[in-house]
Write a structure and sequence with these properties.
The chain is of the alpha/beta class and 291 residues long. It has a single domain, classed as 3-Layer(aba) Sandwich (Rossmann fold). The protein has an 8-stranded mixed sheet. The protein has a two-stranded antiparallel sheet with strand order 2-3. This is Methyltransferase. InterPro entries: RM_Methyltransferase (IPR001091), SAM-dependent_MTases_sf (IPR029063). Keywords: Methyltransferase, Transferase.
């Protein structure tokens, strides 16, 4: 196995031989998850034989996704994802017996996700809806969720479209206000005594100063009635970061980051939310996607 696959992404939390062994097993599990999910990196193939790149869509870590569902979402529960993006969270939910409802503004992304899922998923088939997540209550049609799980746009770090409703096109204060509305509307759709998890990273403004997006995410959830319950660090592959960070450190003394924050919130009683999840699941996602 290549070094890049072994170092693809890790949840950090300790050292020593046992942790190294866990990371090695997680890397192999991640490889199998990607094979099972049939993930296409940066490109989607269509029935007419054409293929096109899906700009602005990163591949979400499938092992993090698997752990989040196994730890914080009841089997058979409904996952709500207001910032759906690519197909990973929906496909892994389906493979683990969870229903999934994701919202995204871009019709080409919705089409790509559905095409991907048709090759891989059965029942429950993940559902993606084109629309504005500020209207998530209307889009979901009165249903309530058992787990809120998403990775929102990191302000204007990446621009996903030219749609003025797209958060990545907004100035930060407008972004933050709209983001808070979406978080509040999504949290309101959760059943009582349930968990939510957002994967976020901080971003800099035009002067190079951190915006405190992580803190603003915690504030948005707290204002929606969901206090912070857990925090984990997702350590991502360094790639070309040492080269890029070295140059920017010389010119500006800015340090590069190789991690994101996995923030877990709880609605209601943490003990009852834990009971609703049932026993912690173990096991493998079956390898080999259908042709």
């Amino acid at each position: 196995m290549s070094r890049s696959k072994k170092a693809d992404a890790q949840i950090s939390g300790g050292g020593g031989g046992a942790w190294a062994e866990f990371n090695a097993k997680a890397a192999e599990r991640r490889r199998k998850s990607k094979v099972a999910a049939g993930l296409v990196f940066g490109e989607m193939k269509f029935d007419d034989g054409s293929a096109r790149t899906l700009n602005g869509t990163s591949i979400f870590d499938p092992v993090l996704c698997e752990l989040a569902y196994r730890w914080f979402c009841p089997v058979g529960g409904l996952v709500i994802d207001p910032f759906a993006g690519g197909s990973v969270r929906g496909i892994v939910a389906s493979r683990l017996g969870r229903a999934y409802f994701g919202v995204d503004l871009r019709p080409e992304q919705i089409e790509a996700n559905r095409k991907q899922a048709e090759r891989i998923c059965s029942d429950p088939f993940p559902e993606w809806v084109e629309g504005d997540s500020t209207n998530v209550r209307d889009l979901i049609g009165g249903r309530r969720g058992d787990f809120l799980f998403s990775c929102p746009p990191y302000a204007d770090l990446e621009r996903y479209s030219d749609d003025p409703r797209d958060l990545s096109t907004m100035e930060y204060e407008d972004f933050r206000a709209t983001y808070r509305k979406i978080v509040a509307a999504s949290c309101d759709l959760l059943e009582p005594d349930r968990f939510a998890c957002f994967v976020v990273g901080d971003v800099r403004d035009r002067q190079g100063l951190y915006r405190n997006f992580i803190g603003h995410t915690v504030e948005a959830f707290e204002d929606a009635g969901l206090p912070l319950y857990n925090e984990a660090i997702l350590v991502t592959q360094a790639g070309s970061l040492p080269i890029r960070a070295g140059k920017q450190f010389v010119t500006s003394r800015k340090l590069g980051k190789t991690h994101q924050n996995c923030l877990v919130f709880v609605k209601g009683d943490p003990r009852k939310a834990t009971e609703a999840c049932g026993d912690v699941e173990f096991g493998e996602i079956e390898e080999g996607a259908p042709e």
